[in-house]
Automatic annotation (TrEMBL), chain A:
Gene3D superfamilies: Histidine kinase-like ATPase, C-terminal domain. The keyword Transferase applies. Transmembrane segments: none annotated. Residues 8-140 form the Histidine kinase/HSP90-like ATPase domain. PANTHER family: ANTI-SIGMA-F FACTOR RSBW, ANTI-SIGMA-F FACTOR RSBW-RELATED. It comes from Verrucosispora sioxanthis. The lineage of its organism: Bacteria, Bacillati, Actinomycetota, Actinomycetes, Micromonosporales. This is ATP-binding protein. It comes from the Bacteria. The keyword GTP-binding does not apply. Keywords: ATP-binding, Kinase, Nucleotide-binding, Serine/threonine-protein kinase, Transferase. One of its GO terms (molecular function) is protein serine/threonine kinase activity. CDD domains: HATPase_RsbW-like (cd16936).
From TrEMBL, chain B:
Residues 3-112 form the STAS domain. GO terms for molecular function: anti-sigma factor antagonist activity. Pfam families: STAS. Positive regulator of sigma-B activity. Non-phosphorylated RsbV binds to RsbW, preventing its association with sigma-B. When phosphorylated, releases RsbW, which is then free to complex with and inactivate sigma-B. Gene3D superfamilies: STAS domain. InterPro entries: Anti-sigma_ant (IPR003658), STAS_dom (IPR002645), STAS_dom_sf (IPR036513). This is Anti-sigma factor antagonist. Keywords: Phosphoprotein. It comes from Verrucosispora sioxanthis. It comes from the Bacteria. Belongs to the anti-sigma-factor antagonist family. PANTHER family: ANTI-SIGMA FACTOR ANTAGONIST TM_1081-RELATED, ANTI-SIGMA FACTOR ANTAGONIST TM_1081-RELATED-RELATED.
Length: 144, 113
């Protein structure tokens, strides 16, 4: 069961709130201090991705963030966008990043996934169990 | 911390000092300022990230957009960054191979950029 559950309307202004809450819960859960910057970035990226998908599909439903600290610190960020649109881990190399034809949205998506994959050792992106959408699940160890 | 933006001129370079958090909410303001500078004729732009304490993919996308725009206009674009957490972000995304990165504004503006 989640320790803290946060749902927010899919607006960019709320992503910062999700980051702040995510890091506060991580600190309290016992995540190492030197990992907190990465926790902040990863939660931000996952929420940014969810907000972008909701806006792309005109979805007013809230984005859900669940934080749980039973044994590890686990964070789920759940969106409600069609699955075919939201799973696709695009790893871009330097040549692709610098390519003139790559638009900013696609670049941001690719860079966002690169950051998630780079900063979260235990990362899963999968369809939600019920209904439409995907969840980004991230797990960090805790010191207890 | 809110985004802060301040511009100064060093020789032929326009230096944009950025502070605070650059994320999905604030990045549009950074994009707007960079476009204003380029539209006003700036061709050698240095973005100083020295006071940035958070930078996400949206902010990186804006920076790449400015780099490409200036390249198209025969200009140059460089970043100043000496904070390890931010440098790690550039390495992980391979953007350290895309941007000229300098530890100081002096290095960026004195390197013929």
């Amino acid at each position: 069961m989640a320790t803290v559950r946060l749902s927010f309307s899919p607006a960019p202004v709320h992503v910062r709130t999700a980051r702040l809450v995510g890091v506060a819960v991580a600190r309290r859960a016992g995540v190492r201090e030197d990992l907190l910057d990465e926790v902040r970035l990863a939660i931000g990226e996952a929420c940014t991705r969810a907000v972008a998908l909701h806006r792309q599909y005109g979805l007013a439903e809230p984005v859900l963030v669940e934080m749980s600290d039973s044994g590890t610190y686990a964070v789920r960020v759940v969106d409600r966008a069609p699955i075919e649109a939201s799973i696709g881990l695009a790893a871009l190399d330097a040549d692709q990043l610098a390519n003139e034809s790559l638009n900013e949205d696609d670049l941001t998506t690719g860079v966002g996934f690169a950051l998630l994959a780079g900063f979260v050792e235990d990362l899963q992106v999968r369809p939600v169990d019920e209904g439409v959408g995907t969840e980004v699940r991230m797990v960090w160890p805790v010191n207890r | 911390m809110e985004l802060s933006l301040a511009t100064r001129t060093v020789g032929e370079h326009t230096v944009l000092e950025v502070g605070g958090e650059v994320d999905v909410y604030t990045a549009p303001r950074l994009r707007e300022r960079l476009l204003e500078l380029i539209d006003a004729g700036a061709r050698h732009v240095v973005v100083d990230l020295g006071r940035v304490d958070f930078l996400d993919s949206t902010g990186l996308g804006v920076l790449v957009g400015a780099l490409k725009r200036l390249r198209t206009a025969d200009g140059t674009f460089a970043l100043v960054c000496d904070k390890e957490p931010l440098l790690k972000i550039f390495r992980i995304t391979a953007l350290d191979q895309v941007f000229p990165l300098y530890p100081t504004v002096e290095a960026a503006t004195g390197a013929g950029q």
